[in-house]
Amino acid sequence: TMCAVLLLWMKRNNLFQTFGLCQSSVSPSQLLWYLPLAALISSNLWFGLRWNLPLHETLFYIASMICVGFVEEVIFRGLLFNAMRKDGLKSAVIVSSLTFGIGHIVNLFNGSGAQLLSNLCQVGYAAAIGFLFVILFLKTGSLIPCIVTHSAVNSLSVFANEGSITVTQEIFSAIAIAVIALAYSVYLLKKFPK
Description:
Elements: H1 2-12, H2 35-41, H3 55-85, H4 89-102, H5 116-140, H6 144-156, H7 167-191
Helix pairs in contact: 2-6, 2-7, 3-4, 3-5, 3-6, 4-5, 5-7
């Protein structure tokens, strides 16, 4: 419902371009063909695959995660970042990134079963991914790669083999995700300095 409301509101107010629901202004080759985003998408599968839910629940989960990816990107990058960038680009980037990361603390309380360390790792790498997404949006004008990546990461979590992941593996993967996100951000900032 929220996806439909957002899409209708953006269409009615002719805001698709403003909120990045448009083609990237940069060719995929200049963006390393989005390979770092593919690495992030695969992160839920690094320690194996597992069928965690019945088929109908899996399909519902994937559909809801696609919607979550869309809504969160529009809120954190499209609305929040765009509203703040007029008053200061650096602070808009920082606030958009950090609020996106901190927003994942809700997983401690939403019944997902996330433990404290797992959730803190998620908050940390989500802030790094949030930074990447805001830089990618800033440099390309398109939120579509961010929406696709976010939705895919969320959706593939239904197949994560979480039960067999050790604390060390969890910390390693959180660091690896943050390093990939931050390294790609640095690449984008150097490749497109203005």
